[in-house]
Write a structure and sequence with these properties.
This protein is an alpha/beta fold and 182 residues long. The chain is built from 8 helices and 6 strands, in the order ααβαβαβαβαβαβα. It has helices at residues 2-7, 10-23, 39-54, 66-74, 89-96, 112-118, 146-152, 168-179; strands at 30-34, 58-63, 80-83, 101-106, 120-128, 155-158. A 6-stranded parallel beta sheet has the order 3-2-1-4-5-6, with helices on both faces. α2 packs across α3. The two termini are 19 Å apart.
């Protein structure tokens, strides 16, 4: 029952809206999602990854623990995972996304956000759905360089589900067949 409550409630709606209607992925693109270990960000990110895989997209997840990395790759079917607590994040990104990153679904913000933006392809898209790494901070963390955004001609779109609740029936139409094995 918990599975269906998560998938057909806010996490699933947020994942579907963000990936397909905001991000508009295309076949052959490399997508990076930040999957945080705790709370709602993890539930959204894990669903985004599974939706991307079901749509035939290459998908790399970023998590905070090796156990979560194993889980998203071995259980959820992500192509790869990066532990953001690693010392060689830039090298891992270079190895896992040698052609760059086309779509970045950001649930957390934090230091890895800068490295991902630096690896974005021209005309890439960034979906900002949450910034959980900074919610408890008194001073906001530095964001990626506007120069990097400008040079790459990136599109950045922030969204939250309250603006899109009217689309819930269409989002559920997309989700339901996937949950029924279709």
């Amino acid at each position: 029952m918990k599975l269906f409550l998560s998938v057909f409630a806010l996490p699933g709606l947020t994942a579907t809206q963000g990936l397909f209607n905001v991000g508009k992925p295309k076949q052959g693109e490399t997508i990076i999602v930040i999957v945080i270990v705790t709370g709602a960000a993890g539930s959204v990110g894990s669903i985004v990854g599974q939706l991307a895989k079901a749509d035939g997209l290459q998908f790399i997840g970023v998590v905070g623990k090796n156990e979560k990395a194993d889980w998203i790759v071995n259980e959820l079917g992500f192509d790869a995972a990066i532990n953001y607590n690693s010392d060689d994040l830039d090298q891992q990104l270079a190895q896992l996304a040698p052609s760059g990153i086309d779509l970045f679904f950001d649930n957390t913000g934090g230091p890895i956000q800068h490295l991902i933006v630096e690896r974005m392809n021209a005309h890439g898209r960034i979906i900002v759905c949450g910034l959980i790494a900074g919610y408890d901070k008194e001073v906001a963390a530095a964001r990626p360089s506007w120069m990097s955004v400008l040079k790459r001609r990136l599109t950045i779109q922030v969204f939250t589900m309250p603006d899109h609740f009217h689309q819930a029936p269409a989002l559920l139409e997309k989700l339901t067949p996937l949950c029924n094995g279709g």
